[in-house]
Amino acid sequence: MSFKNFKCVPKIIFGRGSFVQLDSVLAAERKTDDDFVVFLVDDVHRQRPLANRIPTHNGDQVIYVNVDDEPTTDQVDGLTEQVQTVSHKAPVSVVGIGGGSTLDLAKAVALMLNNAGGSAQYQGWDLINHAAIHHVGVPTVSGTGAEASRTAVLCGPVQKLGLNSDHTVFDQILLDSELIAGIPKQQWFYTGMDCYIHCIESLNGTFLNEFAKAYAEKAMLLCREVFIDDHADKDDKLMMASFMGGMSIAYSQVGACHAVSYGLGYVLGYHHGIGNCLAFNVLEDFYPEGVAEFRAMMNKHNIVLPTNICKDLPDQTIAKMVAVSKSMGPLWENVYGADWQNKVTDEMLTQLFRRI
Amino acid sequence: MSFKNFKCVPKIIFGRGSFVQLDSVLAAERKTDDDFVVFLVDDVHRQRPLANRIPTHNGDQVIYVNVDDEPTTDQVDGLTEQVQTVSHKAPVSVVGIGGGSTLDLAKAVALMLNNAGGSAQYQGWDLINHAAIHHVGVPTVSGTGAEASRTAVLCGPVQKLGLNSDHTVFDQILLDSELIAGIPKQQWFYTGMDCYIHCIESLNGTFLNEFAKAYAEKAMLLCREVFIDDHADKDDKLMMASFMGGMSIAYSQVGACHAVSYGLGYVLGYHHGIGNCLAFNVLEDFYPEGVAEFRAMMNKHNIVLPTNICKDLPDQTIAKMVAVSKSMGPLWENVYGADWQNKVTDEMLTQLFRRI
C-alpha cells in the first residue's frame, strides 16, 4: 500500500477585507524593475469595483478571461502565448481572481509558462515536468475547492480532464469573504452545492481516511450553516467550507456525481456547478440522505433545476456521455472499490442520464 | 488592520502504517553520495521496535534526545554543535521522531544549522534570518499540535519562549497513527488535553476568525470522540485533532491556560501537558464549560492531578510565576482584548497559582 504525500497550499491569508494585502504579497516576488505580474480576472469583474482595486504596477498584465464556458486547453494555450508575446521574460507571479474556472485557468497558465508543448498533453496525473511560476488564487465565488486542489480541470480535444500535479497547487491563496458577497443567487447556490456534493462523495467513498473524513464532516456542517441555517457569517463559512471540502477531496476522491456530471458537461457544455446539481438530483440510490438534504436546500432557496434535458436526446449523444462518465476510473473506484468495472454498466449510466 | 499570512506545512502523509514511506520522502532530498540525514529521536524509542525501523543510510546521524525536561536553548545549541562536529557539511534533512518536545527540538536544530549565534537570541517573533534545513516531523505522541505550528518552544536563560517564524514550520509531516498506540496513559491524556485546551482557548478568544473557528470546532469534536466516546478509531482521531488544533492556533492564539502554565513550567519545571492540566483545572471562571468537560474526561480515565503544589511555596516563587505569566502579552490579549493590561493583575494571578 502506498500513501499519498499530499501537497497543500503553503500560505493562506483569511479574512474579510484581506484583499488589500495582495499588493504586499506580490511585493515579495517583485525583485527587479522589469519584474511583472499577470492577473487573470473573471470578466464579470470588468465593470465592478474590484477592477479598480487590482494592485497593478508598471509592466503588469491584467487579462480579463471569459468563463461562460468551461476552460479549455485551447484557452490556456492562447493565454500562455498572449503572456509570452507581450514580454520575453516570464512573470514573477500569476494571480487568478474569480471562481473555480478562473482559478483553474491561472493554475494552468502558471504551469504552461514553464512546460512547453501545449496543455492537452499534460491532462492526466503527474505529467508536469517543471515547477510552475509562482501563482496566487483569490476566489470570488466559493464552493469548488479549486483554491485547495492539485488539479486544473480543462476540456481538451479528447477529454475533460485536469492537470493533476503537486506543481498545480497554488503557492498562496487569499480568502476574503467580502469578495463573494453579491454574486447571482443561482451561481452562489450551484457552486456552493459543489462543495456539499464533494463532502457527500468523499464521506461515502471507499478511499476515505480520517484526514479526509475530518475535513469533509466539518465542511458539510459549514454548508448546513450556510444553506439551511442562513447564518449571519455565511460568506465566511462558505469560504471555509469550500477550502475544507477541497482539502478533503485532495486526500480522497469525488464520486458518482462528478463522474456523471463530467459526461454531461463535456457533451452538452453544462458548467460544473449546475452540472453537478443536475447529476446529483438523480443519484438517490447512491446517496439517499445527501440527495434528500440537497432537495431541501433547493426548496429553501427556490432553486428550480431544468428538467428533461436528456430525455429525448439521440442515443449516440447519450452513449458519448456514458463513455466519458465511464472513463472516470478513480471516481468509480471510490464509489465501488476495486471491483468497479463490473458495476458501472452502460445500461445503468444510460438510465441515469435519461432521467436528467 | 493587518491579516496574518499563515504558513502551513506544505506536504502531509496521513495513514496507519505510513512510517514505511519516510525512506522515500528522504530519498528525494538525498542528491549526492555524501548527503546525510539527522534523525532526532525521543530516547523512549531507543529500546522500542521503532528504533530498528528508522530508515538510515550511510553517513546518517541518529541522535536520541532526552525530553524528560522541557527543551532548552542550551540543548538545541548542543545538538546543533554535535551535528556540525561530525560533518563539515550540513545535513539535507533533520527528522524529528517523538512528541511535541522532540518535534520542537528538530525544528530548532534545523533552524540553528543555518542561523549562527545561539538559539536564545531568536526566541521571539520573526527573528530568524535564514531558511531552515529541510525538516520533517513524525509525531509519536499527539496533542500539542507541534506538527502544525510555526513555533519551537524553548526554555532559555531568561524566558520560556518559542522560535516563532515561517521558517520554523516543517517542510513535511508524516502522521502514522500506529506510532501513537501504547504510550503511557497519563502522557496520552495530558498531551491530548493540550489539544482540547487549545480549542477552548481559541474558541473563547478575541482573535478568533472563521478559519480558526472551523478548525477548533472540529478538533474539539474529535477530542470528544477520543476522550468521551472511546471511539474505535481514536488513535487516528487524536492525530487529526492534534493537527487541526494546531492549525486553529496558528491562525488565532492560546489563552489564559497557556499563560498560567508557562509560569508553572518555567519556574517549577512541569512539562507542558500536565502543566496545562494543572492550570486549566483552576480556570473555571475563564472557561466554565470547558473546565467542566475536562473534569468529566479526567474522571472517565481515572486521572488524578497532583494538588497543593503552590499552596505553601514562598511568595517570591509565586511572584516569579506571576511575572512569567504576565509577560505573555499576546495570550492575554486573546483573552481580554486590547485592554488586557488593566485586567491581568498580580493579585488575580497570585490567587490562581495558590490554588494549583
UniProtKB/TrEMBL annotation, chains A, B:
InterPro entries: ADH_Fe/GldA, ADH_Fe_C, Alcohol_dehydrogenase_Fe. The keyword Oxidoreductase applies. This is Iron-containing alcohol dehydrogenase family protein. The keyword Oxidoreductase applies. It comes from the Bacteria. It comes from Shewanella youngdeokensis. CDD domains: Fe-ADH_KdnB-like (cd08184). Residues 11-176 form the Alcohol dehydrogenase iron-type/glycerol dehydrogenase GldA domain. Residues 190-287 form the Fe-containing alcohol dehydrogenase-like C-terminal domain. Keywords: Oxidoreductase. It holds the Pfam family ADH_Fe_C.
